[in-house]
Design brief:
By secondary structure, the protein is mainly alpha-helical. Helices cover about 75% and strands about 5% of the residues. The protein folds into two domains: about 130 residues, no CATH class; about 140 residues, no CATH class. A hairpin with a 3-residue loop joins strand 2 and strand 3.
Length: about 280
């Protein structure tokens, strides 16, 4: 028993020292993520919540983890070295995106090296969930936003035309009988899609259902998010045409529409889960 306690203490000291070392090495990456999370036009405002959720999920599995057989794997050392090489090469080229993802590789390698495959298998989802806190490259965000907002504008114009409102779209600008509206980046739906993707995969993880239905629930987040933004944009165009642009430029109303999109998307996600026959259960065993 004393030997077991001393071994556990030594392991705890090693993990603590490695944690401090990783925090020091990845300090520039953490600063970059923090800036992206809290920027005015952030697409990753949910970022700070992701590690908290992962920590809670791991804590909920504490009983299973205490019973897991610890058998350190040398495979973890290879993964760890690979992750550090990715970080070093990314640091030289100043590509923060790959630097951030190398952190996931390093953490995976450490888990396997110190605790083994069985232990790592138990926490693999909370570990992979951390991927949702890493911001995508700005170029990718801008290109995807442009494509999505043009699509949303096109569909919204088609809908209001069906409702009998004359409209013409040129790029992201919609011309109507009484006014014109520029469909901005927030109406693209990418921001809500990124957040809803994280929420949908978490929802799929905690529900009781087949893997096929879980995957279907996760994939449903894309059309649900885009559909919610089509509703928002269509409503915006109709209101602007009836009451003028001043009402949709009101900050309170604009933010209210943004909240409406997420509420509609959440309702759509839970309804999809209901249709698929998913039931919420505890994941601890």
């Amino acid at each position: 028993m004393p030997f077991e306690k001393s071994r556990n203490l030594a392991l705890l000291i090693k993990i603590s020292l490695i944690t401090i070392l990783i925090a020091f090495i990845y300090y520039p990456v953490f600063i970059w993520m923090w800036q992206r999370w809290f920027s005015a036009d952030s697409y990753y405002a949910h970022g700070p919540l992701i590690p908290v959720v992962s920590a809670v999920l791991i804590w909920l599995k504490r009983k299973t983890l205490s019973e897991a057989h610890i058998n350190p794997s040398n495979l973890g050392l290879g993964i760890l070295i690979f992750g550090l090489l990715v970080y070093i090469s990314s640091a030289f080229t100043r590509i923060y995106f790959t630097s951030a993802y190398s952190l996931f590789i390093v953490l995976l390698g450490l888990m396997l090296y110190f605790f083994g495959k069985q232990f790592t298998r138990v926490i693999i989802f909370p570990l992979c969930f951390l991927l949702f806190m890493f911001p995508a490259p700005v170029a990718f965000i801008e290109a995807t936003t442009l494509r999505m907002k043009l699509f949303v504008a096109q569909v919204s114009v088609f809908i209001i035309q069906l409702l009998g409102v004359p409209a013409l779209r040129e790029g992201s600008t919609v011309y109507m009988q009484n006014t014109s509206v520029v469909v901005g980046d927030p109406c693209s739906g990418l921001r809500s899609l990124i957040s809803l993707s994280a929420l949908s995969i978490l929802f799929a993880y905690i529900v009781k259902s087949s893997y096929t239905r879980k995957i279907a629930l996760f994939l449903a987040s894309a059309p649900i998010s885009i559909g919610a933004n089509v509703i928002r944009t269509t409503a915006t165009l109709l209101i602007a045409n009836s009451y003028g642009n001043a009402i949709i430029e009101n900050k309170f109303i604009h933010e209210g529409f943004g909240l409406m999109v997420f509420v509609i998307a959440l309702i759509g996600l839970f309804l999809t889960g209901k249709i698929l026959g998913c039931r919420i259960v505890s994941k601890d065993s």
